[in-house]
Design brief:
Elements: E1 4-9, E2 12-21, H1 28-44, H2 47-53, E3 60-67, E4 70-78, E5 89-94, E6 97-106, H3 109-127, E7 131-132, E8 138-146, E9 149-157, E10 159-160
Antiparallel strand pairs: 1-6, 2-4, 2-5, 3-4, 3-8, 6-9, 7-10, 8-9
Length: about 160
Amino acid sequence: MANYVLEEKDGFTVFGLGTELKSDYTDYVGINKEKSSFWQAVSEDGRLDQLKAIAENDYVFAVNEAVNNKMMYYAGVLSQESLPASEGSRVIQFPKGEYLVVKGEGTTADELSNQLAGITFGQVLPEVNHVAYVGGPNATVLMDQENGRVAGEMWIPVVRK
């Protein structure tokens, strides 16, 4: 099984710039393409640099959240600050509690994010039968980048069954 831990976390706040994912929730190819296009756009137009400027640390978050029956996806940072309001910007509250944390490494942030989501939802959650994901925001956290490798974790809030 994948490398995972259950970890208690204090509540935390991520400020994110987001987009609505229009693909059907079962269309993984379409969703991944939308996410990839979004990351490329925020990286190229300077919004990611603006986020990093208000960040409390070097972590960059890729957040998935259902908001008003829409699948939303955010690029975000840990921050008590926010940028001027823009379409798709949001303060995302992650609850205090237990989190399923799956660690991984990839050659790009996209690859890592897709790999961690597949492992977490496809392998780990079905096998770890004493906890359940009951919704709320979840995130891939990009923590380190060196020598052409990206390291990070997927954080999913869970409850004991």
